[in-house]
């Protein structure tokens, strides 16, 4: 009598095969999270650089037209783009000052062209109470920082790198970057 070899019919995956496939999927997913984080950080850095460039160009254009920087009552040579002084600066650069004999941008030229954001946390130009400027923020939700050459010697001490001088600038604009801290080389700068 002949016996036939007993063949096992395969109707699915074994437990080992399923575990191997799940492990591969988990490893690929973990690798993609790192890539997504890097891409997001880069995108926010580019967005912040665009905002800094727009503000710098607006301030340069204002200076070209009026031969002075806007006066917003900030104390010292540094300020941010939020709070009363920051909102006043942005309002002047947008050409949205209330009409008066003390207007700093009497031509009402809109020098600043930047993204309008919905929330401070996502960055951009933020309005509150309808059409009132709240501030201008980087992609991480922090106000931009500005330092002026208040003694008009074409030199500004570098606010990011101690001991260095930025030359041939009336002002510099920067953001602390993704970690929102000073001095770790992830700052986004106008110089």
TrEMBL record:
Record's keyword terms, sorted: Membrane, Methylation, Transmembrane, Transmembrane helix
Pfam families per the UniProt record, alphabetical: N_methyl
Entry's transmembrane regions: 12-36
Organism superkingdom: Bacteria
Matching NCBIfam families: IV_pilin_GFxxxE
Protein name, per record: Type II secretion system GspH family protein
Origin organism lineage: Bacteria, Pseudomonadati, Verrucomicrobiota, Verrucomicrobiia, Verrucomicrobiales
């Amino acid at each position: 009598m002949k016996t036939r070899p007993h063949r096992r019919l395969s109707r699915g995956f074994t437990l080992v095969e399923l575990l191997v496939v799940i492990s591969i999927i988990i490893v690929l997913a973990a690798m993609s999270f790192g890539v997504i984080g890097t891409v997001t950080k880069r995108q926010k850095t580019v967005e912040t650089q665009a905002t800094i460039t727009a503000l710098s160009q607006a301030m340069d254009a204002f200076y070209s037209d009026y031969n002075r920087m806007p006066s917003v009552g900030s104390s010292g040579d540094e300020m941010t783009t939020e709070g009363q002084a920051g909102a006043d600066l942005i309002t002047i650069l947008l050409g949205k000052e209330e009409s008066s004999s003390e207007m700093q941008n009497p031509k009402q030229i809109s020098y600043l062209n930047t993204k309008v954001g919905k929330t401070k946390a996502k960055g951009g130009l933020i309005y509150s109470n309808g059409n009132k400027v709240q501030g201008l923020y980087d992609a991480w939700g922090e106000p931009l920082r500005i330092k002026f050459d208040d003694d008009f010697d074409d030199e500004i001490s570098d606010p990011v790198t101690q001991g260095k001088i930025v030359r041939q600038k009336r002002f510099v604009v920067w953001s602390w970057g993704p970690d929102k801290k000073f001095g770790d080389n992830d700052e986004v700068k106008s110089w």
